[in-house]
Model the fold of this input.
Amino acid sequence: MTPSARPAYLSGSGYPVAAVSGVMKDPERHYRCGLGLLTQGRYADAALHFHAAMVAEQEAGVVRPQMRYRSYYSLSRSLSGRLRQEELKLCEQAAAADAFDPILQLNLGKVYLRAGKTTRALQAFRRGLSLDPENEELRTMLVRTDRRARPVVAGLDRDHPLNRTLGRWRARFFGQQNGSVRH
Done:
C-alpha cells in the first residue's frame, strides 16, 4: 500500500508507519500491548500500538475493522495531549459504528472531556450506562462530570419534591446555577 493510499487517520497520525507495521503483523497483539501501556499511563506508547493495530488491519485488507482499535487510539492520543480533530472524528465514528458497545461510549466521553466538550461527554456516558447499567467506570465518570449541584438533602433522591424545591430556592437566593456560583 502506498502512503498516498492510506486513510487519513493512518497517514496523518504523526507516527512512522514503518516503525509500527514492521514489528508485529497481528493487530490483536498490538491492541493488547496498547491496553497494557494505557493502564501504566504510557499514553503515547499506547497510541503507537493502537495505531499499529489499525495499520496491520489495513495492510491485511480487513473488511470490517475493529472499532475498539480506533476508539482506544483516540483515547490514548487525547490522554497524551496530542488529540487532533481527525482523531476526535475517528472516535465518534467508532462509537457510531459499534453503537452497542458501552466501552466505546466511555472512551468517547473521555475524549470529549479532554476536548472540552462536557455536554457531549455527559451524553456519551449516559448512552454507555443505558447499554450497561452495571458499569462502575461509566457511573463514576458520569457522577464526576455532572454539572448539577449536590442535592440539598443528601438522604433524599435528587428528584424528591423537597430537594427540587430547596434546590430552586438555593439557586435563587445564593446565586448557584448548575452547581457553580455566578460571578
